[in-house]
Specification:
This protein is α/β, with parallel strands linked by helices. The chain has 15 helices and six strands. A hairpin with a 2-residue loop joins strand 3 and strand 4. The longest helix is centred in the middle third of the chain and has 36 residues. The two termini are about 35 Å apart. It holds the Pfam family HTH_18.
Length: about 350
């Protein structure tokens, strides 16, 4: 995996993320912003409090806010978990790191709340400005705004921090999937061809699986014979046959194919057996084993990869079915074929 290829803008669809962030802010009653690894905002601030906005616009006080942000982010990275802390005005903030493949890519910063239970035992106050005359004057000037800050218990803050952390972990998993897809795409078009920079345009975590499936089919098609079904079938059954040959990586079921043909499952099964001369399950198994043989002969894909690419539930099941029809395991078949 090439780490330099992973960027947050390839992981997050920022238009959709901004909407999600805004909704998270409403639900949690916290201000939220997403920053890159340098601390630069990569999203708009969701629900920034009037007090914090006023302090951050103050030429002398903004440096303390920045110091809190910087230290909070560093502590979150160091511990690789959410870091809950107090700013110089005893306001609670949370830093949730976004770490991808061992690299710190950015963070979700949340907070701008006060504790209703005054629980501060496990929390660090990063900067102490209690004796700073300018800090005291600013607090007095914006006291009305300070009193309007939302109140949460420490337990509520912990729960929100853990929820945001789980969301980050989900994004990381999708990011790794996306990077693997990129590598698959490069292999499918050939390493000597120029990568289409718009390849991921419009894709987000919502449709990653569809993209993976499409690329899986592209990879399989690169090695498997492109001949379709050699039997003539009725117009009723044809949509299912076309679907099977165009979606080699999918775990196809009778139920789904009956829906594709817009007929009942029982009628589909009878019609399929009559026209194809075999039951649906046997036909699919034999067809996928034939595709697997071509992949074993012409590609360097592992048995586990072939199992996954052809939509088998697990390698063990693939090996069992392969041996049922070929009399040997996939590994033995490949070894025998290579020695021919």
């Amino acid at each position: 995996m090439k780490k330099e290829k992973i960027n947050l803008d390839k992981v997050i669809d920022f238009k959709k993320w901004q909407t999600l962030q805004d909704n998270l802010s409403l639900v949690t009653n916290m201000a939220i912003i997403t920053v890159d690894y340098k601390g630069n905002p990569i999203s708009k601030h969701s629900k920034c409090s009037r007090f914090c906005e006023s302090v951050r616009n103050h030429p002398q006080m903004v440096k303390y806010c920045q110091k809190c942000d910087s230290r909070g982010g560093l502590e979150a990275v160091r511990s690789n978990e959410p870091y809950i802390y107090l700013c110089h005005y005893n306001i609670v903030d949370v830093a949730v790191p976004i770490i991808i493949d061992g690299r710190y890519m950015g963070a979700i910063m949340a907070g701008q709340v006060k504790l209703s239970d005054n629980y501060t035992e496990d929390m660090e106050k990063i900067v102490d400005t209690s004796n700073n005359s300018v800090s005291i004057e600013v607090l007095e000037e914006f006291k009305e705004y300070y009193e309007q800050l939302p109140l949460l218990t420490y337990k509520e803050v912990q729960n929100i921090a853990n929820m945001l952390s789980s969301l980050c972990n989900y994004l990381v998993e999708e990011a790794l999937d996306k990077n693997l897809i990129l590598e698959m795409y490069k292999k499918s078009i050939g390493n000597n061809k120029e990568l289409d920079e718009d390849f991921f345009q419009g894709y987000s975590v919502d449709n990653i699986e569809k993209l993976k499936k499409g690329l899986s089919n592209a990879v399989i098609d690169a090695y498997v014979s492109q001949y379709g079904c050699d039997k003539k079938v009725s117009s009723t059954l044809k949509p299912a046959i076309d679907y099977i040959y165009k979606n080699k990586s999918e775990n196809i079921t009778v139920e789904s194919m009956a829906k594709v043909c817009h007929i009942s499952q029982s009628y589909f099964s009878r019609l399929f057996s009559k026209e194809m001369g075999d039951s649906f399950s046997n036909y699919i198994s034999k067809l996928k084993i034939n595709w697997a043989k071509e992949l074993l002969e012409d590609s360097d894909m592992s048995v586990s990869q072939i199992s996954d690419e052809l939509g088998f539930n697990e390698p063990g099941y693939f090996i069992k079915i392969f041996k049922k029809y070929e009399g040997v395991t996939p590994s033995v078949y490949r070894k025998y074929y290579k020695n021919m």
